[in-house]
Amino acid sequence: MSSVSLKTEFAGIKLNSPIMTASGTFGFGEEFEDFADFSTLGAIVVKGTTLEPRNGNRGIRIAETPAGMLNCIGLENPGVQFLVNEILPRIGKYNCPIIVNISGNTVEEYGELAKILDIDGVKAIELNVSCPNVKEGGIAFGVEPKSMAAVIKAAKKNTGKPVIIKLSPNVTDIAVMAKAAENAGADAVSLINTLIGMAIDINTCKPVLGNITGGLSGPAVKPVALRMVWQVRKAISLPIIGMGGIMNAQDAIEFFLAGADAVAIGTANFVEPDSTVKIYRDLKKYLEQKNLTDIRDLIGKLRT
Amino acid sequence: MSSVSLKTEFAGIKLNSPIMTASGTFGFGEEFEDFADFSTLGAIVVKGTTLEPRNGNRGIRIAETPAGMLNCIGLENPGVQFLVNEILPRIGKYNCPIIVNISGNTVEEYGELAKILDIDGVKAIELNVSCPNVKEGGIAFGVEPKSMAAVIKAAKKNTGKPVIIKLSPNVTDIAVMAKAAENAGADAVSLINTLIGMAIDINTCKPVLGNITGGLSGPAVKPVALRMVWQVRKAISLPIIGMGGIMNAQDAIEFFLAGADAVAIGTANFVEPDSTVKIYRDLKKYLEQKNLTDIRDLIGKLRT
Amino acid sequence: MADGVIKRHEKIGTNDVYLLDIDISANTEKFAAGQFVQLQVPDGEILLRRPLSIADAAGSNLILIYRVIGKGTKRLAKTSVGQKVSIMGPLGNGFDLACKKPLLVGGGLGIAPLLLLAKRFAGKADILMGCKNVEEMDWPLPLFKNIVKNTFITTDDGSMGMRGFVSEYLPEILTAESYDKIFVCGPEIMMRSSAEVAVRHGIICEVSLEKRMACGLGACLSCTIETKCGRKKVCKNGPVFESREVFF
Amino acid sequence: MADGVIKRHEKIGTNDVYLLDIDISANTEKFAAGQFVQLQVPDGEILLRRPLSIADAAGSNLILIYRVIGKGTKRLAKTSVGQKVSIMGPLGNGFDLACKKPLLVGGGLGIAPLLLLAKRFAGKADILMGCKNVEEMDWPLPLFKNIVKNTFITTDDGSMGMRGFVSEYLPEILTAESYDKIFVCGPEIMMRSSAEVAVRHGIICEVSLEKRMACGLGACLSCTIETKCGRKKVCKNGPVFESREVFF
Ligand SMILES: Cc1cc2nc3c(=O)[nH]c(=O)nc-3n(C[C@H](O)[C@H](O)[C@H](O)COP(=O)(O)OP(=O)(O)OC[C@H]3O[C@@H](n4cnc5c(N)ncnc54)[C@H](O)[C@@H]3O)c2cc1C
Ligand SMILES: Cc1cc2nc3c(=O)[nH]c(=O)nc-3n(C[C@H](O)[C@H](O)[C@H](O)COP(=O)(O)OP(=O)(O)OC[C@H]3O[C@@H](n4cnc5c(N)ncnc54)[C@H](O)[C@@H]3O)c2cc1C
Ligand SMILES: Cc1cc2nc3c(=O)[nH]c(=O)nc-3n(C[C@H](O)[C@H](O)[C@H](O)COP(=O)(O)O)c2cc1C
Ligand SMILES: Cc1cc2nc3c(=O)[nH]c(=O)nc-3n(C[C@H](O)[C@H](O)[C@H](O)COP(=O)(O)O)c2cc1C
Ligand code: FES
Ligand code: FES
């Protein structure tokens, strides 16, 4: 038996490992029942949820780009009531912490959502203020410190759960945003959401995506994500969920070294649906090789 | 003989084609003598030049990332006097417009450089306010509209040549920067410079790059670059040099459709030193197939 | 999830159509016609998997038939026998075989999944296939030779069989014979018009939809469509649907 | 620039060392020992070319010898005979052969380029090679068998030849024989210490440096180094330098 432990704590939540899933890439967990091992997952971060059900964007919703993908799903979801009534009870059986990612059209909606989700079966909420694919809400709150702070405060006022703010990479200075989040009372930050990108079909001379632009994710963005985690680690003391192009344990380790307390796996789930299992296994191996016994011995240990 | 013409004009400069080289990726042109065809190149944009010679950064200067590369060369260059006295006379023989990319530590230095370069043999100057790899000058001027405007004005005051401002992608709203550039009197914009990124060696637990962070270029950034060109095209009416991950004619065509009046080829030169020649050839073919005779019939023709 | 090994890989159609025979070391007996797999294009350049219908299956061998379209399939066409290839599947819901006299209707590459369907009907199905021209008929004709009863053919240019689209010929066939179900796979416009004809003739019609997919598991919502019964995911709830559910 | 075809590709060393024989359909007669090529790892996953020394060249065949280090070489090791591979080169400046009695000194993979150098010296060179242990000697020994006069060997663990580093053995060799030039290729620390010994013995020493490279043409400035004569580019002004120019 390996003596290496991947157990950790994040914003007061006990986790079996620091490996989570990124919102929107793992459905509600159920879709990956055949591939994932929920006992090795730190948390399932479910698809972005809104007050009312949403249909998302029309037309083509994904495009592949070099080492990455663009998506403009546009927050399609069955609405928070359906989540609470139908889905949460179903996925409770995995005994895996559930973090609900929420999006609002207004500051008040974030508060309302936080209140509705202040229930058993939800371990934390993640505020999506950085979705590039919807007109209202979404990214508007994520690129301006003041409106982001308002969203955080609205959520904090309405829930006893840890509030995680998901930062947009589409900003001049991510450290400024992170500091504003810390000051507004967020319990943790997660980063990065997708970079805004575009693809054009040169045969039709039209944008590939129905929404013209979309969010770039996958290995292509990893260097940017890693840099931002490192910048944010130096700027604030809140726990960080690092994500952006993590495909394997090596990538995850880079994020831990840069200062991430947990990592989230996104696009990798589409490529290898058992990515989280492999990362768990290989992360353990790495710690063994390095003669480390606790994942926390790795976090922030970049030697500069 | 093909009746398709790639000849065009950019900011008043007559070009044999809208295909340029990106600063820092094509040396001074000479290095590519065996591979390029200077009669098909729109312009050579030479390596970033400063008042005094610079040694650049220590340690490892490049790292490969998925579909991209990071560099932290740090503006190594022999200084503007050496450029003027030794290099420009030598590369004049190519009969290809030379654009000099300049970087200053202060607003005044940009002015001084512009003045020194207001000579025959230089067709335009490109202001690099977006180099992520140097402490002073560099990116600081490129993420804040006011200081960028000051740099543009200083340059314009000191030269009769067209002044091109090279925009940084590391900003919240590239359109705001482009508008500020237009208002400050720039003659053209080029975009994008590199995105700031990072890579970590998990064996040594150290950053791969000597400068810790570096600039991300190559196919990985193309979706972001393309989106920014499209955004800027909608925001201003100045001519645009589009760049960022262009590897082939298809990529270049995407940029033209999004609104670039010319394109610059960067990282591709490292992969295929005759990239510009191939792009010229394939761009002509595409126009023929589309029954277009003039490259300008393509520019900004994205159907949304 | 299976790591398969390429056993055969050859160009079977003049128009860049390839057949890929993969040994997935697992029994394929239960694979339903109309289901698909998410294939990872080998060699690491291509990020997302590509959805391809199961064209045929026997023992531990899976047959895929694909046309070179873009980057992924171009790259795929370069892989050689003996190479490993990762397969996710079978995914989605296949055709519902319950019927007495089935007519299969295929257009272009949509003919591929009808191969396994014809086999599952053990010779009792008829097929109507449509292609652009006689050249494009080069690969389906031999494949269907002994596994269907009657073969009807249309080509857009009349270079083989009837001239025109399958949907134009369909009324005639449906009137002549008493089919009780038709199974359509091909370009969306062809499925739509064929489904219309079927509905007009009071015959149940199943169609197989194509949408860009990332996960193939119902998680990413790349492939959702509007149906008469609400939003559905092509990968999970389809790709086969009763035509009246999706064309309405 | 040449599109080569892989003619032979095999593991020649237990420790993940491979030999790649590429037909570049061009005469290699003028390729100098110490020059390198920028090889594009086939199949598109790897963006930048990889610099590899010319280990040997004859007719239109180019031999490269490499060790699997990271992503690029791992991928390269998977390419098969018959595959096309794009080669840029020969690049840089090779060794200057002018001398009467040469001693070649190689460590690890640095032994590879000394192969062509030994051939260019047509049997008159001696070689001193150092590896970690006897296993690592498996590939160089047979290759150098008939192309050098004397072979001296060191291993770090003493499992073959002298125990220790080449630089420790070098003084003895230089004292015993009257070499007038030594050519060193290997890890930087080994080249530095060997160069020091040479300088002390008043013998000219050439070394071959390694730096990360993007362009290989002197354009990108990835590979600049500080020398006694100002800043130089390893790709363009090197990779071979007179030791006193770079170790000072
Ligand atoms: C359920 C299903 C079954 C399919 N079965 C077959 C089959 O048996 N034979 C066959 O030749 N083709 C089939 N297709 C279409 C096939 O998936 C595409 O031709 C293929 O993905 C094109 O990939 P590419 O990289 O060559 O093209 P690109 O255009 O470069 O691909 C870019 C992106 O768009 C997606 N894409 C492009 N065209 C399609 C399309 N028509 N449908 C879905 N996604 C697309 C790709 O998967 C990729 O993500 C099927 C599609 C689906 C959804
Ligand atoms: C002039 C020259 C000649 C060389 N000749 C040989 C040879 O004959 N045989 C051999 O086995 N190796 C040789 N090397 C080293 C070889 O280039 C590296 O081992 C190889 O690039 C590693 O690539 P990778 O993708 O496997 O490693 P990674 O570590 O994944 O590569 C990441 C990046 O770093 C670069 N890199 C990594 N290690 C080195 C290194 N030691 N030197 C330069 N760049 C490096 C890669 O080119 C790539 O850009 C030579 C290097 C140079 C500069
Ligand atoms: C298809 C898709 C859907 C996504 N949906 C959401 C979402 O609903 N809410 C959210 O905060 N982030 C969403 N994201 C962003 C991811 O959670 C993650 O931040 C991003 O993809 C970067 O990680 P990756 O590169 O590992 O995928 C989505 C990403 C993808 C690819
Ligand atoms: C090695 C390297 C050096 C560069 N040096 C400069 C420079 O001196 N000045 C500048 O404005 N941009 C510089 N750039 C940025 C490029 O000009 C270009 O904006 C960027 O690489 C994006 O284009 P690409 O993806 O086609 O390479 C450099 C890029 C690279 C890769
Ligand atoms: S492909 Fe992901 S939901 Fe259908
Ligand atoms: S590798 Fe580009 S200058 Fe040497």
Automatic annotation (TrEMBL), chains A, B:
E.C. code: 1.3.-.-
UniProt-listed InterPro entries: Aldolase_TIM, DHO_dehydrogenase, DHOD_1B, Dihydroorotate_DH_1, Dihydroorotate_DH_1_2, Dihydroorotate_DH_cat, Dihydroorotate_DH_CS, Dihydroorotate_DH_I
Positions that bind FMN: 23, 47-48, 101, 128, 166, 192, 218, 244-245, 266-267
Dihydroorotate dehydrogenase catalytic domain: residues covered: 6-287
Keyword Cytoplasm: yes
Keywords per UniProt: Cytoplasm, Flavoprotein, FMN, Oxidoreductase, Pyrimidine biosynthesis
Task of the protein: Catalyzes the conversion of dihydroorotate to orotate.
GO MF assignments: dihydroorotate dehydrogenase (NAD+) activity
Cofactor list: FMN
SUPFAM superfamilies (alphabetical): FMN-linked oxidoreductases (SSF51395)
Family per similarity comment: Belongs to the dihydroorotate dehydrogenase family. Type 1 subfamily.
Primary residence: cytoplasm
Pathway where it operates: Pyrimidine metabolism; UMP biosynthesis via de novo pathway
Name listed for the protein in its UniProt record: Dihydroorotate dehydrogenase
Catalytic reactions on record: (S)-dihydroorotate + A = orotate + AH2
PANTHER family: DIHYDROOROTATE DEHYDROGENASE (FUMARATE), DIHYDROOROTATE DEHYDROGENASE (QUINONE), MITOCHONDRIAL-RELATED
Amino-acid positions noted as binding substrate in the UniProt annotation, renumbered to this chain: 47, 71-75, 128, 193-194
Native source species: Pectinatus haikarae
EC class: oxidoreductase
Keyword Signal: no
Pfam families per UniProt: DHO_dh (PF01180)
Domain of life: Bacteria
Active-site residues from the entry: 131
Cofactor binding: number and manner: Binds 1 FMN per subunit.
Subcellular location as annotated: Cytoplasm
TrEMBL record, chains C, D:
Cofactor(s) it depends on: FAD; [2Fe-2S] cluster
Keyword Metal-binding: yes
Pathway: Pyrimidine metabolism; UMP biosynthesis via de novo pathway; orotate from (S)-dihydroorotate (NAD(+) route): step 1/1
Binding note for cofactor: Binds 1 FAD per subunit.
Segments forming domain FAD-binding FR-type: 1-97
Pfam families attached to this UniProt entry: DHODB_Fe-S_bind, FAD_binding_6
Gene3D superfamilies: Dihydroorotate dehydrogenase, electron transfer subunit (2.10.240.10), Nucleotide-binding domain of ferredoxin-NADP reductase (FNR) module (3.40.50.80), Translation factors (2.40.30.10)
Binding site for FAD: 50-53, 65-67, 72-73
Residue sites binding [2Fe-2S] cluster per the record: 215, 220, 223, 235
PROSITE patterns attached to this UniProt entry: FAD_FR (PS51384)
Keyword Electron transport recorded: yes
Record keywords: 2Fe-2S, Electron transport, FAD, Flavoprotein, Iron, Iron-sulfur, Metal-binding, Pyrimidine biosynthesis, Transport
Family label: Belongs to the PyrK family.
Record note on quaternary structure: Heterotetramer of 2 PyrK and 2 PyrD type B subunits.
Main function: Responsible for channeling the electrons from the oxidation of dihydroorotate from the FMN redox center in the PyrD type B subunit to the ultimate electron acceptor NAD(+).
Protein's name according to its UniProt entry: Dihydroorotate dehydrogenase B (NAD(+)), electron transfer subunit
Source organism per UniProt: Pectinatus haikarae
Gene that produces this protein: pyrK
